Amino acid sequence: MLHDDYERVEKIARGVRTIFTFADPAGISETVDQTALVSDDRSRIYVLLVRAQTKYFKKHAKELQAIGDSFTVRGNK
């Protein structure tokens, strides 16, 4: 089930953040918060993936949301 899907625009990259839930083969519900960004020159891809059992994800929603929100691209170093 798709919970949220929105565009992320950074200073030097852009992409999408998607949050969804699925059941694994054992029937256990898991939630994924994935952010994927591509650099403006399209030479690099940046990915942050947070995955946990849905029960845990809901219990720690604020902390996990903060982790996803903090993902930034600062450029080549």
Oligomer kind: single chain
Radius of gyration: 14 Å
How far do the termini sit from each other? Answer: 38 Å
Number of distinct beta strands:
4
Helical fraction: 10-25%
Order of secondary-structure elements: EEEEHH
Beta-sheet strand percentage?
Answer: over 45%
Please identify the top-level CATH class. Alpha Beta
The biggest sheet amounts to: 4 strands, antiparallel
Topology (elements, then pairings):
Layout: E1 2-9, E2 13-23, E3 29-39, E4 45-53, H1 54-59, H2 61-70
Antiparallel strand pairs: 1-2, 2-3, 3-4
What does this structure look like?
The protein has one domain (2-70): Nuclear Transport Factor 2, Chain: A. The protein is 21% helix and 51% strand. The protein is built from 2 helices and 4 strands. It has helices spanning 54-59, 61-70, and strands at 2-9, 13-23, 29-39, 45-53. Strands 1-2-3-4 form a 4-stranded antiparallel beta sheet. It is elongated. 9% of the residues are buried.
Quickly describe the structure.
It contains 2 helices and 4 strands. It is α+β, with helices and mostly antiparallel strands and 77 residues long. The model has no long low-confidence stretch (mean pLDDT 91).
